[in-house]
């Protein structure tokens, strides 16, 4: 090739790129139904991805919030006198992984209960059925179970409670949900890519002679490839419009509904911004990715030189 | 400028199309490739623009072994070679002008140069006045002239034609041959596979006869030498 000035090359590249864009758009229209089918598949896939990501990220947030609030409730047996309670407090605070241990007498416990559940309970003030309690916090939420077991082994302990496996259940649920969701999404991604690559294949077959001539007169492989890659990309972008719109709208409604009701609670949902913009960017990126990947899958087979 | 050394070609299905072929073709030559059907003529021709690669042996163009050329360099090899086919291979959606311009557009030539060159070659093949017509509106000979115009529009050094007159009646075939002569007279090498006995015998040039993947005859100004 003869040498050309840089600015000339740039001008040529821009013109070429315009041509590629025109070609790819034309072929979207020409493949009408296949375009519609693949865009629909991408739409369904990305919508599910979006909703799934939205749910999983929020469950993670909730789990995080709750984790930070996990306390061990230690019931002190009734025959413990004041000195034994004081000793117990030292022992508990001295354990590995204990961050804090707050003592609360059974009278204080009853007052709390009355505050929470109403005056009817105040008749228990005559003969308080509750225990003195230590509220223990582990340094790391994950250590909660170990710490609880160690405390249970101490003297003058009636019982130990720590959310009774709620945390474990939440984690199990999160993991199961994540796995099921991932499998579902992988299957959908595969379907969408398959449909896209089929659409591109139809384009390629329809333009076989054209490609053959291009290659005979010395078009580079990229020149031949780019319109198909662009077409795949358009399919992906078109397929991400509706999911992004719906996800944004949905999350707006959810946060509008939940935010006031959750204020002051132990856990919060993720803030609308920037979370929903991140999810939207993810959806768009995935759309572009499956579009391009789908077209690559069919181009590879057809354009061997 | 074209040199084959022990070129052997075995297709993936096991058929040996070229069986250790040696030949040399100089710049500016006009060469007919003749031989019975299935002899390996098309395979021979496809070696020159790397449509097919030799299974072994060397395929030299300008001293470079194009069998070893990297895939991404192949397009640049092909810009120096024009190819014409029996079935024309025109794009039905494009008119005559656009079909010829296509060859320059895909190698990203500048618009003014495209315009100039396309009108120039259309004039040469005598189709300037039909530039706006579509392939389906043209006769076979006219379509072949468009495809010849496209193959020479980027001034290749070599022109390769696989049975370019195979689908044309005798008169039209002579028109095409006149064009080839004209192109050859400007210094372009022409390599043409053909079954047309009349043309080979009347318009004398070097004749290479291939049978069973081997050159069985190579004569300057030779005759067709087969009965069909
Ligand atoms: N792509 C291919 N794959 C497998 N075998 C092939 C291929 N192309 C050609 N052949 C075989 O190689 C041999 C030579 O074929 P080729 O096309 O070169 O013959 P030809 O001389 O051009 O014949 P014709 O005069 O009929 O055009 C034939 O036996 C053919 O079947
Ligand atoms: Mg042949």
From TrEMBL, chain A:
It is found in: Cell membrane. Its main location: membrane. Gene3D superfamilies: 3.30.70.3040. The chain crosses the membrane at residues 32-57, 180-201, 222-251, 275-296. Residues 70-160 form the FtsX extracellular domain. Residues 183-293 form the ABC3 transporter permease C-terminal domain. Part of the ABC transporter FtsEX involved in asymmetric cellular division facilitating the initiation of sporulation. NCBIfam families: FtsX_Gpos. This is Cell division protein FtsX.
Automatic annotation (TrEMBL), chain B:
Part of the ABC transporter FtsEX involved in cellular division. Residues 2-227 form the ABC transporter domain. The keyword Transport applies. GO terms for biological process: cell division. PANTHER family: CELL DIVISION ATP-BINDING PROTEIN FTSE (PTHR24220:SF470), IMPORT ATP-BINDING PROTEIN (PTHR24220). Homodimer. Forms a membrane-associated complex with FtsX. It holds the Pfam family ABC_tran. It is a peripheral membrane protein. InterPro entries: AAA+_ATPase, ABC_transporter-like_ATP-bd, ABC_transporter-like_CS, ABC_transpr_LolD-like, Cell_div_FtsE, P-loop_NTPase. The keyword Thylakoid does not apply. GO terms for cellular component: plasma membrane. Belongs to the ABC transporter superfamily. This is Cell division ATP-binding protein FtsE. GO terms for molecular function: ATP binding; ATP hydrolysis activity; transmembrane transporter activity. It is found in: Cell membrane. NCBIfam families: FtsE (TIGR02673). Keywords: ATP-binding, Cell cycle, Cell division, Cell membrane, Membrane, Nucleotide-binding, Transport.
